[in-house]
Structure formats: C-alpha cells, structure tokens
Design goal:
The chain has one domain (28-175): Immunoglobulin-like (Sandwich), CATH 2.60.40. Helices cover 22% and strands 50% of the residues. It is built from 3 helices and 9 strands. Strands 6-5-4-3-8-9 form a 6-stranded antiparallel beta sheet. β3 (63-73) and β4 form a beta hairpin.
C-alpha cells in the first residue's frame, strides 16, 4: 500500500528532476530525410561537450557518446520499423597530446581519425550526418512516422543522484513517396 509520505517524496523527486529533463531535450536537434531509398537521420547534440567531458577526456578516460536511432509508427502501441545504434569514442593520449577518434555503426567501425584539434573532437562526438535507419520499402505511403534519438555518454556522472544522463529527442514526419 502506498503511504502518503512515500507519495509526497516521489512527487518531490519528480519535480526536482523534471526541469533538468526539459532543459536537456532542447539541446538535441534532429533532421530526417529520404536518400537512396533509405530514411536518413542527421542530428547534433549542442551542449553536450561540457567542461566535465573535456576534463574526463584530458584525464585519459575513454569517452564514448552512444546514440540509439529508432524509426517508429505512432499509435496505441508504437511499432519499431528500424533501429540503428551509432557511437563516437575518444581515446586521448596524454603523452603525445593526440585524440584517437572512432565511429561505429551497429557495432562495426565505420571511420577513425587522429587529431590534436579540440574543435574536431567536439564535432566528432556530438554531430552525425545522414545515418541510415530503415529502407523506404518497409514504409507505408502517406503514413505518419517519427524518429527518436536517445543519447548516452560514458564515463557517466554529472547527474543528480548518480543517475545516467540520458537525452531523448524525436521528430515526426509523413512518408510521401
């Protein structure tokens, strides 16, 4: 049985966490398009490259930003049409002062780069262009869809109560062949 004290504490905790969730959702910009018979997604996580992330990288911690892209149909029960998981990783070498950057798509290494430029690192970790999520042959004409992008950063931290910081954004579109 739920007691009044537990209910009040739960509501208070929700109110503490809610403003942070609203503020972080505004930092994820998502764009969808159709290219070569695929739904492709471009996105940018604007305010994620914080001082805490820079400090973690400078300390030599392997830093990974993981993005889960889902193409779904809205309804009583949302149906997933396609999913792609991409990640960008930075391994900083303190002795040589070089970043080794890798990008993976569904577990396969797609690209790698070594750089000393902090601006390149920021772009590499937080901005993706034209990531294919699903084949258009799987879509119904004139139907509504949405793309949801969920982000996670490792090493974890910087969030209230030690919870994993997750940012989610979504964009709706209608498929017209």
């Amino acid at each position: 049985m739920i007691t009044r004290r537990w209910f009040v504490r739960s509501v208070a905790l929700f109110l503490l966490l809610a403003p942070a969730t609203v503020r972080t959702e505004e930092t994820l910009r998502i764009t969808t398009s159709i290219s070569d018979n695929h739904v492709v997604v471009s996105f940018e996580l604007n305010d994620a490259y914080t001082d805490a992330v820079r400090e973690a990288i400078a300390s030599g911690l392997r830093t990974t930003f993981t993005y889960e892209l889902e193409l779904r149909t809205p309804g009583w029960i949302d149906r997933t049409v396609g999913t792609t998981v991409v990640s960008a990783t930075d391994r900083y070498d303190n002795l040589n002062r070089r970043h080794t950057l890798t990008r993976t798509v569904d577990g396969r290494v797609e690209d790698a780069l070594a750089t000393e430029d902090d601006a390149v690192v920021k772009t590499w970790l937080t901005k993706w262009s034209r990531v294919p999520v699903a084949d258009t042959a799987r879509l119904d004409p004139a139907r509504d869809y949405y793309v949801r992008v969920t982000t996670r950063a490792r090493p974890m931290g910087g969030s209230l109560l030690g919870l994993t910081k997750t940012i989610t954004g979504r964009v709706k579109f209608t498929f017209i062949p």
